[in-house]
Amino acid sequence: ESATAFGCLMSDMWLGEFDCVSPEVLHSVLGKRYPAFSKRTQQDAQEFLICVLNELHEALKKVRKSPAVARCVTDANASREGVSETSIITQLFEGQLSYDVTCLECKATTDRPESFTVLSLPIPSKSACSLQDCLKCFFQQDTLTRNNQIHCSWCGTKQDAAVKATITKAPQIIIFHLKRFEWQGKHKRKLLTDICYPLGSLDLSPYSSPLLCEDTEYSLCAVANHAGFLDGGHYTAFCKHSVTKNWYSFDDAQITEIPNSSVQTDTAYLLFY
Question: How far is the C-alpha of 267 from the C-alpha of 229, rounded, in Å?
């Protein structure tokens, strides 16, 4: 039902018979599956996106048996050994990270693969930074100590460890979620950081495995913006026409062509490359 509603929405949008198209049918269908999205209150666009991708994947997937494959649409915490599920969603959006985990006691290193469709990037500055700063922060080596220690099979006990991620499979379309909402004590707040992101030539090779043969240079194709705060706000989108390469702003029923210079905004929340 979700895939049918989504397909009808895409057809209505591309046929061009209407000045604007309301996604009310898709919203109604998803609201039945996920009651939180049926309410008239503000919801998280990243969570909604993951729900849509999951629904489409489940409806369109093809199951293929393989020797030992672990995968999950949103993360690799849940895996199914021996079964590989592919769909147009995984073909377009799924990438893979490899986490090298090194025990700081015996120096033994293990590799932990994890599939992803959305990369949630930390924002290292409160005032201004670049997308590259966010990527460097995400891919920098981290140290696991105290409650986050790993169980080292070589040492036989819990030990501190160094963890570093690299991209081992680059998706055709990579989605970045800018983590603007964070906990400060018992309260959650929104970071209003102005993040500079490129419209083209985004090079991910510094964060990719040397064995990766795929092209890791990307161009921006869409932006989801959030204006406002936690208790209320407004979502808009910028999308690049795949044929004309012109940029358009989608603000409820108002659709306008915008110059490239307007695509850079301090309200960006999701970036699609």
Answer: 11
Non-local (6+) Cβ contacts of 220 within 8 A are 197, 198, 199, 200, 202, 240, 263, 271, 272, 273
E strand or H helix at 246 = none
- DSSP assignment letter at 104: T
The DSSP 8-state label assigned to residue 230 in this structure reads: T
Q: Please, which residues bridge with residue 103 across strands? A: 161
Contact by Cβ (8 Å): 209, 168: yes
User: Three-state SS for 272?
Assistant: strand
Tokens of 228: 């406002």
User: 226 pairs with which residues across the strands?
Assistant: 235
Can you tell me the distance from the alpha carbon of 120 to that of 231, in angstroms, rounded to the nearest whole number? 22
Neighbours of 149 (CB within 10 A): 15
pLDDT 10s digits, 38-51: 877 788 999 999 99
| pLDDT digits 0-9 by tens, 56-106 | 999 998 866 555 444 444 443 333 344 568 999 999 999 999 999 999 999
Residue 118 CA from chain centroid, whole number: 2
Residue 20's φ and ψ, nearest 5 degrees, are -150, 160
Cα→Cα distances 193→82, 85, 188, 227, 249, Å: 44, 38, 15, 12, 21
User: What SS3 class is residue 256?
Assistant: strand
Phi, psi of 117 (to 5 degrees): -120, -20
In the DSSP assignment, the letter for residue 191 is: -
Mind listing the pLDDT tens digit for each residue in 118-134? 999 999 998 899 999 99
Distance CA 90, CA 106 (A): 37
In which residue are the tokens 């999950």 written? 72
Q: Which of 20, 21, 2, 149 is nearest to 87 (CA)?
A: 2
